[in-house]
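Protocol step 4 of 6.
Sequence for 3-isopropylmalate dehydrogenase (Phyllobacterium trifolii) entered exactly as in the expression construct, tag removed. Do not edit the line below.
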Amino acid sequence: MAAKKLLLLPGDGIGPEAMAEVRKIIAYMNAELESDFSLEEGLVGGCAYDAHGKAISEADMAKALAADAVLFGAVGGPKWDTVPYDVRPEAGLLRLRKDMELFANLRPAICYPALADSSSLKKEIVEGLDILIVRELTGGVYFGEPKEIRDLGNGQKRGIDTQVYDTYEIERISGVAFELARTRANKVTSMEKRNVMMSGVLWNEVVTATHKAKYSDVKLEHMLADAGGMQLVRWPKQFDVIVTDNLFGDMLSDIAAMLTGSLGMLPSASLGAPDAKTGKRKALYEPVHGSAPDIAGTGAANPIAMIASFAMCLRYSFNMVAEADRLEAAIAGVLDDGLRTGDIMSEGKTKIGTVEMGDAILAKFRALAM
Ligand code: NAD
Ligand code: IPM
Ligand code: MN
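Step 5 output, structure tokens:
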């Protein structure tokens, strides 16, 4: 069997701390489950900027394109707040998404039973929650041109971002959402702002047409994205799959994270289109959270989002469904045992750090394999 080529890009802040816990799981899988992962490592974000003045080097970009899957930690931090926009830490992540053509970002928000008390919302609102946000990731206002600060010559400047969507981009992301809905509760809610945005009018039209042409068995509803944010905190269990654009998806997924208890809980998979010949997709797995500068270096970060992102990698890139299920069950089991990092801590539970949480999940994962 050819080795499964993984590129690890731990990044900045808590990224490397969380990635270290995944590395332990991979080492165990190679040693005892004959999983045959081969690991490479690279720099992305502020650490890459410090090393070579760019948020990702060409050599690491080439490694990412050649890998079977990329595991990404987090980037950014106050140290790089004043560096030019095109070499900022975040630019490394945006380049990876764009050059790898990772148009589909899957952000599942699951409220583990043991954490129903940790949300800022009432238990009955989040208990049993299982929704999936499908965020368009390579288009919209993140990448539209022009994108610049223009000097107007009269002492004024103009900051310009451009929201652009073409038919094919909306078709392919809604196709992903409909396909995934069929494997779940069979419902898609599309969110845009067709009341004020032309891209929203087109989004709505194309999602409706795609649904009619190929997916009329799936229940489809449309919601204005601002109302969608409100509904997410009012009664999130009304949703199954939410499909939305790049910027709305960014914001709505941070909201969804808090339904599950913490940003430290939310994994994601960023996927490209399947290759016409091999069926393989380019893929990068990234927690939804950032580099958490406020807790970086203290050993307090929750590694669950990163570990659950690796579980998504096992599922989507390597079809290792049993192992993915087992790793997710290990996470749930450790939470059932009452172990908590600070971000999800509640009364009567046992507070532990990043390393202890990683160790506990690995021990559970191992035990479930016996
Ligand atoms: P953040 O996600 O880093 O942190 C927000 C809050 O959530 C902080 O209080 C943090 O301590 C907490 N938090 C986040 N992840 C946690 C975890 N795993 N365990 C425990 N607590 C956790 O967002 P921010 O503070 O707005 O951004 C900090 C930097 O990260 C910025 O430079 C931003 O651009 C960057 N960022 C990067 C990514 C990414 O790399 N994918 C995502 C979001 C933000
Ligand atoms: C995310 C992050 C990124 C985004 C940043 C760091 C570029 O917030 O993945 O949610 O805005 O997409
Ligand atoms: Mn975000």
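Step 6, annotate. DSSP finds twelve helices and 14 strands in the chain.
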